[in-house]
Amino acid sequence: MALVNPLSPDHDLETKELAEFFNETLGFCPNSVLTMQHRPSISKAFINLNVAVMANEGKVTSALKRMIAWVSSNATGCRYCQAHAIRAAERYGAEQEQLDNIWEYRTHSAFSDAERAALDFALAASQVPNTVNSDIKKELHKYWDNGEIVEMMGVISLFGYLNRWNDSMGTHIEDGAVESAEKYLGEVGWEKGKHDGSRY
């Protein structure tokens, strides 16, 4: 069971209204958000930040943002967020070949050099200690402008919060997220881990 159980979607009506955003991105309201409702100011602030971070104002597509989220979550080991990110990438039109080979983004032909630069940035920025360096900067600026890099960093930082939240809380993972994770990540060892609802 989770460290703190989620509350009903009807617990806070303002959160419920804002959480409609997740019906598009995931097809359901995440248990993480339902747990944040124990302090509705946190759930509402989180959703508003999520909406702002995932808005597209440059060339960083919705699908790439979700793949950045996946690489970031993979670096930190949060299986809950890995599943959510790959599901959202699927729903936002990531190419099938990319979804099938996300683990191989550095070498697989389905990924462009610009996407590799973005995903390398996500990996370096998510590691502890942080490994963003002049080479990462040089590659990023070949393909992306300052605003687009800020959008990417927003995704990485948002998922840094989520990775800590969900791994510490042992958030119970939803069936839809499990379905996507098993489809795209199961062959390379993804499993529910502490998020199966019975580890705590």
From TrEMBL:
Pfam family, one: CMD
InterPro entries (UniProt xref): AhpD-like, CMD-like
Domain Carboxymuconolactone decarboxylase-like: 41-122
PANTHER family documented for this protein: CARBOXYMUCONOLACTONE DECARBOXYLASE-LIKE DOMAIN-CONTAINING PROTEIN (PTHR35446:SF2), SI:CH211-175M2.5 (PTHR35446)
Annotated protein name in UniProt: Carboxymuconolactone decarboxylase family protein
Organism of origin: Flagellimonas okinawensis
